[in-house]
Design brief:
The structure holds two protein chains of two kinds. Chain A contains eight helices and no strands. By secondary structure, chain A is mostly helical. The two termini of chain A are about 30 Å apart. The N terminus of chain B is likely disordered. Classes of the chains: A mainly alpha, B mainly alpha. Chains A and B meet through helix 2, helix 7 and helix 8 of A and helix 2, helix 6, helix 7, helix 9 and helix 10 of B.
Chain lengths: ~150, ~250
């Protein structure tokens, strides 16, 4: 081992686990969104994406109590429809963003989980989004994630 | 993977080499690393002496352990200290003009190319020492005499550990340079030390949700570094997942 390697905090037997982290998870629309938000000004991009949804124009992420649960359910369904009809690309990532904004807002504003995704999976998604945003948007995703049971 | 004894006849950087003719000048030497090979290794070679030094440093960092493992499993393990033998191999081969361009044309993973070259180097060393009568007791023949897993499997395991360690060092440096030192601490505690967030977030003054967000930034840096290591070894981007699975099974 080199001197550099010796200094690592590394327990024997974990190299397989660490190697496993390198596997990609192809096909998840979320991954495209996360990769995109990592590259761009995430706040500006999200504001632009939400402008496409009538009920959310100007949203920045929302103050509590701004939307009814019905509005958020409608947004989620609208995003799902856009997502299923849109080819891969900007429309699809806009739809993905709209979907998760609605789901996170329902948690933050109403404490209600409106996604059928398993709780652990949804929490991981919200944490992924928090990790590629900053400031108010990061707080928005993290606050929503806190409604869900930690599993890591 | 075939054993070195049954490998194709090329012996990289060796007098026994059955070299290709592609890209060679009339003198039989290649002009340079093929411009079409837009790889990290190719880029370093095109950079000139500094790039070559960086390349050699990388090779020594990542591949020294797999080569030592191979040496220790061979019948000639008593001819010298593993560090000296591996160091001698690097000195003898890495600066050869065609060494890496021959590798690129072989289509092999770099670790397998290096082991193949090392195999021939050890045979040369054995012959040379017999000729010089420098050591009284030498094996008659060179052989790889592992009792357990195949030599290739042991090399792959050592390579797996080595690229993980190198990727950890690279990602840590990146995180520290970008102001994410705390994120890296969370990564080390959670993924390397395998601690639950709940067991250490208190001492860091964060909660589990913050830790899970922080770890993701460091984890992406690690994943980028890990996949880069595999690409440097000659795995194309679209085959990295398959390579990872293969190494996990090694």
């Amino acid at each position: 081992m080199t001197e550099q390697h010796d200094s690592m905090q590394f327990r024997q037997g974990t190299s397989k686990d660490l190697l496993r982290l390198g596997l990609s998870s192809p096909g998840r629309p979320l991954d495209q969104l996360v990769e995109l938000l990592e590259r761009v000004d995430a706040a500006a991009w999200l504001a632009g994406a939400l402008d496409a949804h009538d009920c959310l124009q100007g949203a920045e992420p929302f103050p509590a109590g701004t939307h009814t649960l019905e509005q958020l359910e409608a947004l989620k369904e609208q995003a799902k429809q856009h997502g299923s009809s849109a080819a891969a690309g900007s429309s699809a990532t806009h739809a993905t963003a709209g979907y998760f904004v609605a789901v996170a807002a329902a948690l933050n504003e109403h404490g209600t989980k409106i996604s059928s995704a398993p709780e652990a999976e949804l929490r991981a998604t919200l944490l992924d989004l928090a990790s590629v945003t900053t400031d108010a948007w990061q707080q928005f995703w993290m606050q929503a994630a806190r409604f869900l049971e930690p599993t890591e | 993977m075939s054993t070195p004894e049954s490998s194709p006849p090329e012996a990289p950087g060796s007098p026994e080499s059955a070299a290709t003719t592609d890209g060679r000048t009339s003198t039989g030497k290649k002009d340079h690393f093929p411009q079409t090979q837009q790889t990290w290794v190719g880029d370093r070679i095109h950079e000139g002496p500094q790039g070559r030094a960086d390349l050699n440093r990388h090779i020594m960092q990542v591949y020294a352990d797999p080569l030592r493992i191979y040496f220790l499993g061979s019948s000639v393990r008593n001819i010298g200290e593993p560090e000296d033998i591996v160091g001698g191999f690097f000195s003898d081969r890495l600066d050869r003009e065609d060494f890496f361009s021959d590798w690129q044309q072989s289509g092999k993973r770099l670790r397998h190319w290096l082991i193949n070259a090392f195999h021939f180097y050890l045979k040369e060393e054995l012959r040379r020492r017999k000729r010089d009568k420098r050591i009284g007791h030498l094996p008659q023949e060179f052989d790889v005499t592992h009792g357990g897993p195949s030599p290739e499997q042991e090399v792959d395991r050592a390579f797996r550990d080595s690229i993980v360690q190198t990727a950890l060092a690279t990602a840590r440096a990146e995180c520290e340079a970008k102001g994410y030192a705390a994120n890296w601490q969370v990564f080390e505690r959670h993924h390397c030390q395998q601690e639950r967030y709940a067991d250490f977030v208190g001492e860091m003054g964060i909660d589990e949700t913050q830790a899970a967000v922080m770890v993701r930034i460091a984890r992406r840096a690690f994943i980028r570094a890990l996949r880069e290591q595999l690409q440097r070894d000659g795995t194309s981007a679209e085959k990295i997942d398959a390579e990872i699975r293969e190494l996990m099974d090694a």
